[in-house]
Design a protein that fits this description.
This protein is of the alpha+beta class. The chain is 17% helix and 36% strand.
Length: 204
């Protein structure tokens, strides 16, 4: 439990104080898929070049860009982060945050995974495309945000802190024209959205 908390604090610290490529450089052609999701499973594997990578299965909760090519449901995402394939094969990246963590939510600014990263045996998911990340928005623990908003903001993105998700969503819309294209039914919180059995789509 202590280790998990330490990793989470380290992750926030790294994101706040490590320079990150500007979002405006990535949100166009280089990042065709932007969505919010939760990591539901994760394991490490060897690529075709015998490099160690992580494969995380993410449940997509909101789609901001790329609807139709990606859809609500599960998707596999490849990341380069610290971890082990087994007790004898590990990778430690001292200059990186710990990577995406199991059971945590993020905003994923992503693209198609490079072919050299694709191997057989990835988990079966709803989305056929396998992705990799350009940028992350990291969502914090609501209880910690309520108690210590200056230390644990609700969202950290590109060296900016947001104490509420709605503030972050407004930032994405006003600065980059991004709004929710589809939303999981379990995320319904806006009466202006029109619901279908599996999705919520913005009524324009």
């Amino acid at each position: 439990m202590i280790r998990k908390g330490w990793l989470f604090l380290c992750f926030f610290s790294c994101l706040l104080f490590t320079p990150i490529v500007g979002f405006s450089d990535w949100w166009n052609e280089q990042s065709p898929y932007i969505f919010e999701g939760k990591v539901v499973s994760q394991y490490f594997f060897f690529t075709k070049d015998k490099e160690i990578r992580a494969c995380s299965t993410v449940k997509i909760l909101k789609i901001f860009k790329g609807l139709g090519v990606i859809n609500l449901g599960l998707v596999n995402i490849i990341t380069n982060q610290t971890g082990c394939v087994d007790e004898n094969n590990c990778i430690f990246l001292a200059d990186y945050p710990p990577g995406i963590m199991l059971n945590h939510e993020y905003l994923f600014v992503s693209k198609d995974a490079e072919l050299k990263l694709l191997v057989d045996g990835f988990p079966a998911v709803d989305n056929k495309k396998t992705l990799q990340i350009n940028l992350l928005g990291v969502y914090g623990d609501l209880k910690l945000t309520a108690k210590f908003p200056d230390i644990y903001p609700e969202v950290v993105f590109n060296n900016r802190k947001f104490n509420e998700k709605n503030e972050f969503y407004n930032f994405l819309k006003s600065n980059y024209g991004l709004s929710v294209q589809a939303e999981s039914s379990e995320q319904i919180n806006n009466p202006k959205l029109q619901t279908t059995p599996d999705t919520v789509k913005v009524v324009r």
